[in-house]
Amino acid sequence: MIRKSIASLQQEAAQSGSNTLKRSLGGVNLIAIGIGVIIGAGLFSLTGIAAANNTGPAVILSFILAAVGCAFSALCYAEMASMVPVAGSAYTYAYATLGELWAWIIGWDLVLEYSVGAATVAISWSRYLVKFLGTYNIHIPPQLVASPFEKIELADHSIVHGFINLPAVLIIVAITSIIIRGTKSSALFNAIVVALKVGVVLVFIALGWKYIHPENYHPFIPANTGEFGSFGWSGILRGAGVVFFVFIGFDIVATMAQETRNPKKNMPIGILGSLIICTILFVLFGYVMTGMAHYTEFKDNPAPVAVAIAHTPYKGLFLAVIGAILVGYTSVILVDLLGQSRVFYSMSKDGLLPSVFAELHKRFATPWKSNIVLCIFISLFAGLVPISVVGEMCSIGTLLAFVMVCIGILILRKKQPDLPRPFKTPFVPVVPILGIITCLVMMFSLPLDTWIRLLVWLLLGFLVYFGYGKRNSKLGGYGNAQKNEQ
In 101-145, at which residue ranges do the beta strands (DSSP E only) sit? Predict the structure, then answer.
């Protein structure tokens, strides 16, 4: 339960030199990183799912409720990130407030979330690439777009086995090469990608607005069917749970604190700014989509955006949406890999993982060895394991991190009320408590297999921690030395 002092973390954040991460990010860069991971393919699918099954046109109210739920945790992250501007995000915050073991649990769990997330998105990216290229009669051999454990039925109904999902491997390798070259180049690439996919969302909103049929909004809140979550106000609540996971990702902004210029000012801007911008885009997107087509048309349709576009003369817009999904997935992979390597970097600097993960490139000042190790692991996972085994890109670990950060705010406000706080979470303890409740409700709504996967991974993590991390912990070692001297 040994803890890092806030003073030591602030001293670490102020360090400069050849063995520290370069501070090259501003507020706009951080907002782009947040938008990059928040806006993914989920916007184009979950909006239709929630509207058809839970909310009807009132899906925009679900987006607002979900955003408010995220805002509780985002405000707590903003205070922590401005006060402790070092890499590691929730891992570092837990180290300062709850102790080393809890920090390890959070860090280890975030490693799994980012790994599974990057691998899952890479596999989905491969599938959309095949669909996109197919519209231009460009076809990749099916054996090279599936894992060895998957069977593919060809046009002549013959069955072949996959060999490797090559596009999934290549996108991981390509993104890693960009990340290794430095956070500034990664941020530039991400900014271009974000501009492209936000542009497609704005084009959809602008073009679709002319084809809104007001009658599609009546009734705005369809009557409840007699089952909780099936329309009515309970449907709006259930819909908020469905679309809540579209917002998750702003926390990755906090992992970039040690590479941010003036983090005390820019971290809150990045975290809260990306959440606010995405909320506005999501509400407008949901409003236009449910106005273009009646919500019942989205039922059991895997491509609800195509249904809406069918009501316009812009049939080619769906191809642009597929392109936006590809671009969106690319930025999600980028930010997942960035966030994971920074968590590894922090854990390695603390001695809980081997020092190789904290070694920085002499020219680019990035944890390049960590990037390469993660690239090999994740690309093999993405290339050789089917998406059904890799698992749904769930958010249980992120939600657990949210809970810990909210708890951390309560602890620090109680134990160290006089600490300088460049940004202060308003209405404490109400906001952190609401953040904790919101996240716990979302966690317990997740399926059982998600909990089983989390527990198995944590058990493996305990073996690593008690076998290596605890004995090599720099903070624990220092504490033991102090005891011996006394």
Answer: none
